Amino acid sequence: MSLVQLRNSITNETCACFEPSLDYVTIKVPRWDLRKFVRCSNKIGSSMKSVGEVMSIGRSFEEAFQKALRMVDEDVTGFDPYSRTITDDELSSPTDKRVFILATALRQGYSIERLFELTKIDRWFLHKFANIIQFIIDHSDSSIIQDQSLLLEAKRLGFSDKQIGIYCGSTELEVRASRERFQIRPFIKQIDTVSGEWPAQTN
User: Fold this and answer.
1) Domain residue ranges of the chain, discontinuous segments joined by +
2) What pTM value is reported for the model?
3) What SS3 class is residue 46?
4) Residue 13 region, left (φ>0) first, then alpha (ψ -120 to 50), else beta?
5) Quick check: 103 and 133 in contact, CB under 8 A?
6) CB 121 within 8 A of CB 101
7) What is the pLDDT of residues 127-160, one digit of tens each?
8) CATH 2.40.50 fits 3-138, yes or no
9) What is the pLDDT of residues 11-26, one digit of tens each?
10) Which residue stretches, if any, does this entry annotate as coiled coil (predicted)?
11) Residue spans of alpha helices (H) in the chain
12) Comparing C-alpha atoms, which of 110, 131, 186 is closest to residue 155?
């Protein structure tokens, strides 16, 4: 029998080759706490070094990614670049802080191709990271909280109120007040564990 002839046992309505359409993205990020261990290198290889992980859900990769970074470490506000200059060696070595080195490299003008050569991270992810940093570059002023469409775009890219306040030279409370004025509020959506368009017949 072909996949078209076989029934999907979860939905009992679609065929086995049916691919559900997703309206959300789920990201899991490991938590590294290498400072707790004596004589432990911060280089990440095949050995298990994470002390846990977090999972975040959002409507876009950028949103879910920034939410995950905030959940991993309370001192992190999001995918924020360092203020210092970074080197190619820092990019080519996988460490617990390389994700922020990537943010810095994008802020300093590294191209996607150059980053791919140094990190071997898939270009799709690099383009998504670049979307976040490009928004920071284009809108590091107070105009975000005065413009409804910009504020909405910032929230869709996963920026927190605190993060927006930092880049706007404003405060978290002022950003929140601006969001309330524009009726930009968080909301809850039901997550279908089958991730499908059809109702599941099993759990």
Assistant:
1) 3-138
2) 0.79
3) coil
4) alpha
5) yes
6) no
7) 999 999 999 999 877 788 889 999 999 999 999 9
8) no
9) 777 787 765 556 788 9
10) none
11) 61-72, 88-92, 98-107, 112-119, 123-138, 148-156, 161-168, 172-181
12) 186
